[in-house]
Amino acid sequence: MDEYPYPIIVEGNWESEQAKSVKNKLQIYFQSKKKSQGGDCAVKYDDKSNSATILFKSSDIRDGVLSKAEHIITIDNQQIKLKVYKPSDVEEQADNIAQQAEQACGYQEPSK
Fold first, then answer.
1. Pair 78, 38: CB distance under 8 Å
2. Residue 100, Cβ density class (10 Å: 0-12 exposed, 13-18 middle, ≥19 buried)
3. Calpha distance 64→97 (Å, rounded)
4. 70 Cβ contact partners less than 8 Å away, ≥ 6 residues apart
5. How many CA atoms within 13 Å lie on the side-chain side of 39?
6. Can you list the residues of the chain whose pLDDT is less than 70?
7. Which three-class secondary structure state does DSSP give residue 52?
8. Is the pTM of this model over 0.85?
9. Where do the H-state alpha helices sit in the chain?
10. In sequence order, which residues have a C-beta less than 8 Å from that of residue 68 and are 6 or more positions away?
11. pLDDT at site 7
12. Within 10 A of 14 (CB to CB), how many other CB atoms are there?
């Protein structure tokens, strides 16, 4: 998957029985410039959770997808709103929360 180095994480409220359908819908949706601002991509689907990783060939395509305000796919006549974000956004949020917890506890780094 080295030719697709630009990932995003997609989460949605779909049923685990819909896994194969979801993977196909995500592939079609995120390949469509018209629907998602997307383009050439690959989908890694995690059937243990309601998430998938979409890997794009270029950062421009990924940025286009991230710039779109809302992403919705239809599965079994049900509209599913997708939460779309870069993996680094999660790490940054976790770091910020950890820093806030340290500040709230009055934790200070020992001086060397």
1. no
2. exposed
3. 28
4. 81
5. 12
6. 1, 89-112
7. strand
8. no
9. 19-31, 33-36, 59-67, 87-104
10. 36, 37, 84
11. 96
12. 20
Question: In whole angstroms, what is the distance from residue 59 CA to residue 6 CA?
Answer: 6
* Amino acid in position 50: N
Beta carbons of 18 and 76 less than 8 angstroms apart: yes
Q: Can you tell me which residue has the tokens 């890997």? A: 55
The pLDDT score that the predictor gives to residue 110 is: 61
Coil, strand or helix at 40: coil
Going from the C-alpha of 22 to that of each of 46, 55, 77, 110, the distances in angstroms are 11, 16, 13, 50
Domains of the chain as residue ranges with CATH = 6-104 (3.30.70.330)
Distance CA 6, CA 56 (A): 5
Q: Tell me what pLDDT residue 34 has.
A: 95
Q: Return the closest-CA partner of residue 85 out of 68, 99, 98.
A: 68
**pLDDT score, position 111:** 63
The Cα–Cα gap between 35 and 96 comes to 33
